[in-house]
Design a protein that fits this description.
This protein is an alpha+beta fold and 583 residues long. 33% of the residues lie in helices and 15% in strands. It is built from 15 helices and 17 strands. The strands form five sheets. Strands 9-10-11-12-6-13 form a six-stranded antiparallel sheet, with helices on both faces. A four-stranded antiparallel sheet has the order 14-15-16-17, covered by helices on one side. The chain has a three-stranded antiparallel sheet with strand order 3-8-7. Strand 9 and strand 10 form a beta hairpin. The longest helix has 25 residues. The chain is globular. About 22% of the residues have low confidence.
């Protein structure tokens, strides 16, 4: 069977674009006629129409001498057969690809800037395309719906989709929808990551330092390095003395340096959105001490919420410690290499460390706890417990992460550096706040609106609290590239119909799992994301999540894929669950 070349596919796509734009039949996948995206597509079509080389057709006269294959009387493998040149073809002859490539057309002479149009298109096409795909799923008319119907009763069917397209196994999507998902939705796996506007790929800081925003990202690197080191007098930045810049000869012979991981995120809601964070490659740190840190869990937090609304005059507030890990001193320092490209020249000049670079990297000594160190969490926790005990706050019994004051009625839960505090008077709350401010830099949420990712809506008068996680499910569905169902799904787990007439209802036989490592990892991500949501907000999904999890070792890929798709349909139907506690 002949295989189309890339040039053939490109010509076919351009042909479809021209035909679709010129067609008078409504097409839900196209942006609206008066939208900016539609205008840009029309301008791009003009460019393609002017400069796309046309495929030459074979003259009709040459078809009369086309060879034909002698008929085969038995079922045999396909092999070259004797050709009879005298017999003319009796069926339609497919288009013949010319033996010589057509002469390429000259460069565009129009005044339209194609790269600029593509950048403008990327900025506006997402919204229009998302609306078009959603509309095509919700209406029964239109060309898109004829090719994108969902099978009734969830009948399984064979599919050739890849490991990460299991959610589409029961849905036939059009090429336009598939391309939209691949280019736009798949890139939203990491919400705050910086994406290349041309390629759509996630960019590292090293790449961002070569873009037009170089000065902004250099500023983010400068702030992060100054924060970890001794600050900056030129920019009035305060440091934490977490790292020192040293030479190779200053490192003990029994220590081995590790590497650094640099994360660049664009946080639009922050005062300075260009955020750079440097973490330690903890997998190369040799530490034999204890690393376990007892923290509160969701159940403890929920019990505290109920205690707040059940206690007269009680209220709830949240406290967060900034740079929690960076405030802990270590008896035995660790060492790490930082590459030169992280450092702005302004920072090198201010610190005078030019002569300490070797092979485009510099050695740093880590004196305090730092993100990525295996011992950082426990050391920071122990120091915090000591500080709290000096002000009368001790652990409450055997419950991990639960604390109380020895004389005051204040109770709080601790999860890493987040405090959920129950207090009866502002005086009690200020006592805890002032105790923490003597050592730490903290932020206070007097409304108690969020804790552990849960949004809290308090009604102290009526004694109720509403828990929700708005947007959590939608972000997860986008992350896992799940197509919205045509019909609502009200059951998180597929129904197993009984075998009528049979005296014994046999369970399915357990077989050895055939999941590939990529499939297993992907299903585990789905389980992890919704397991927390089930424990925090919607407990009705826990049996379905547990069933999928328990079948990973004995289930078959087709069955697990089917059940996971069914579950995600349910989450798409009920994305905004709320949990209300009353006194």
């Amino acid at each position: 069977m002949p295989i189309s070349s890339k040039d053939d596919l490109l010509r076919a796509v351009l042909h479809d674009l021209r035909v679709t734009l010129k067609s008078t039949i409504s097409n839900d996948l196209l942006p609206p006629p008066n939208s900016e995206s539609r205008k840009i597509l029309e301008q791009l079509n003009e460019i393609f129409d002017q400069n796309t080389a046309k495929v030459p057709r074979v003259p009709t006269s040459s078809l009369s001498s086309a060879p034909t294959v002698s008929p085969v009387t038995a079922t045999v493998p396909r092999v070259p057969t004797t050709v009879s040149p005298s017999t003319a073809p009796t069926a339609n002859v497919p288009r013949v690809v010319p033996t010589h490539a057509p002469t390429p057309s000259p460069a565009p002479t129009a005044d339209i800037n194609a790269p600029d149009l593509m950048k403008r298109l990327r900025k506006t096409i997402f919204k229009d395309a998302l609306r078009a795909v959603t509309d095509s799923r919700r209406t029964s008319s239109g060309q898109a719906m004829q090719n994108a119907h969902r099978q009734s009763s969830r009948v399984r069917k064979s599919t050739n989709s890849s490991d990460f397209q299991y959610a589409n196994s029961t849905v036939e999507i059009s090429p336009a929808e598939e391309e939209f998902i691949r280019q736009h939705v798949a890139n939203m796996d990491v919400i705050n990551s910086v994406m290349d506007p041309d390629t759509g790929k996630e960019q590292e800081l090293k790449d961002l330092l070569k873009t037009k925003d170089k000065k902004h990202w250099e500023g983010g690197s400068f702030k992060e390095l100054a924060r970890l080191a001794q600050g900056s007098k030129r920019r009035s930045l305060q440091g934490t003395d977490t790292i020192d810049f040293i030479t190779r000869s200053e490192m003990p012979i029994d220590k081995k340096p590790t590497y650094a991981r640099v994360c660049a995120n664009y946080r639009e809601q922050k005062e300075d959105p260009y955020r750079v964070r440097i973490t330690v490659g903890g997998d190369r740190i040799q530490y034999d001490g204890e690393t376990f840190t007892p923290n509160a869990d969701v159940t403890t937090a929920k019990i505290l919420f109920n205690s707040v609304i059940s206690t007269p005059m009680a209220k709830f507030l949240g406290i967060d410690i900034k740079d929690f890990y960076l405030m802990t001193k270590m008896d035995n320092p660790e060492f790490m290499y930082l590459p030169r490209w992280i450092f702005p020249q302004e920072f090198i000049d201010e610190y005078g460390i030019e002569d300490k670079f070797h092979n485009d990297k510099i050695l740093v000594r880590i004196n305090k706890g730092m993100y990525g160190l295996p011992q950082a969490g426990r050391l920071a926790y122990i120091e915090l417990i000591k500080h709290l005990s000096e002000h009368g706050y001790v652990r409450a019994g055997l419950t991990p992460g639960l604390f109380k004051h020895v004389t005051r009625p204040t109770i709080f839960t601790l999860f890493v550096d987040d405090f959920g505090v129950k207090y009866n008077s502002k005086e009690d709350a200020m006592h805890l706040i002032q105790s923490l401010e003597t050592k730490y830099n903290i932020t206070i949420d007097w409304e108690g609106s969020t804790f552990l990712g849960m949004h809290l809506k308090w009604d102290y008068v009526n004694g109720t609290v509403e828990l929700s996680m708005p947007g959590y499910v939608w972000k997860a569905l986008i992350r896992f590239q799940h197509i919205l169902p045509k019909k609502p799904q009200h059951s998180p787990h597929p129904h197993t119909p009984p075998t009528f007439g049979a005296k014994v209802q046999y369970a399915k036989e357990n077989l050895e799992s055939d999941l590939t490592p990529a499939q297993l990892k992907h299903i585990q991500r789905v389980i992890g994301v919704f397991l927390y949501y089930g424990r925090a907000i919607d407990s009705t999904i826990q049996p379905a999540v547990g069933s999928i999890s328990s079948s990973l070792s004995t289930g078959q890929w087709e069955d697990i894929k089917f059940r996971t798709n069914h579950f995600l349909d349910y989450m798409a139907t009920h994305p905004n669950a709320k949990l209300i506690y009353k006194k």
